[in-house]
Amino acid sequence: MSGNIEGSTATYNCNTGFGVNGAEMVTCTSDGSWSADPPTCDCELMVTVLNPLLVSVCVCVCAAVCPGLSVDNGMVMYSPSGPLFENTVATYTCTSGYTLMGDMTRTCGSNMMWNGNDPTCERECFVCVTVRAENFAVIKFRVLFSTLKF
After folding, report:
1. Is the pLDDT of residue 102 over 90?
2. Cα angle at 101 between 124 and 126, to 5 degrees?
3. Measured distance CA(23)–CA(2) in Å, rounded
């Protein structure tokens, strides 16, 4: 990097799956040097795998992944488990006393975004209701309020 004018800048970026380790932008100083050393591109996701010899090996998986998901009052399970690569399926479940509202599953797309929308876990609230109609029997039933629209 020679021939730059004082104050000019250079910006570094890395390929997908790698992150910049160091200054992303450097400036040419008055003495003709750069304000920082060039950064390195480091793998963003390290996975430990067990090989057939039962030796733990650290492998750099340099590929884009979908962000992790969460839901209040519930949990998300991924299939397959491990890095959230394209076509990974996320399945939502709610803790006892809560009902899932929305899609139960979402899939990681080729754009590294999840399809659909985040579901929610809504508190179950049952109320007993008695309905009486002229010339008809009395009907008693339970209503789950989290599924009603007001």
Report:
1. yes
2. 20
3. 19
